[in-house]
Structures are given as structure tokens and as C-alpha cells.
Design a protein that fits this description.
Blueprint lengths: L5 H31 L5 H31 L11 H26 L5 H21 L1
Helix pairs in contact: 1-2, 1-3, 2-3, 3-4
Length: about 140
Amino acid sequence: MPKLNPQYLTEIARQIGFVSAVLGGFCAAFLGTLIGIKSESRVAGWTIGTATVSAVSFVCAVIASTKLIVVLHPAAPKAMAATTGSARVILVLFFILGLYSLLTAIALTGWLRSRRVGAITTAIAVVGAIVTTVLI
């Protein structure tokens, strides 16, 4: 991993942590709504599963972000600065996992309604995944 300026890394962690917290809250609310649906279909199970993965991934990203911010603070003990590597990896991996699993859950939700709505939500989610991949 490249060595980044601590102030720069702190700001990245702050931004990703904020976005993860917002999206994690959305995923948790989305998951609660999905669980309330009385459907035994396979699609419902996959949608609930991907929403769960997304919510948990964003929670892990927020925790990793918080660790980075705390460890990189100028008043933090110098010995703590050596522990940023694992937090950086966890932050990036779980943030990306959260994004793609959220897009997958969004794609699957339309299939709970009908084939036509499912095709539309899947197409929109695929475009979102392509844009996300290009930007990451």
C-alpha cells in the first residue's frame, strides 16, 4: 500500500465513514422493510441476504474509518500509527463490498414485484455498478 500523508488519509477516512454511516442506515431500514414482506420466494431471500451483507459491510467500514481517524490524530501515541494498514484494507474492502451488495439488493427488489420492474431495476443497478467501478 502506498504511504499517504496522515492528514489526507484522515480526510479520506472521514468521508468514507460518513458515506458508509448514511448508506448503512439506509440499508438497515431497507432490510427492515424487506423482512416485513411476507414472501417465501428465492428472490426475497437473496434480496434480504444482499441487504444484510451491505448493512454489515457499511458498519464494518464505519468502525475501520473511526479507527483510522483516531490512530492518525496528531495527539495519538506514535506506536498506534503502525496499526493503520489493516484498518485501511478493511475500510476499502468493506466499503466496496457494501456498495456492490447494495446495488445487487436494489437490482433484486424489482423482481419481487414483476419481471418488467425487475428488468428495469436490474438495468439501472448495472449502470450504477459500471459507474461505481469506473469511479473507484
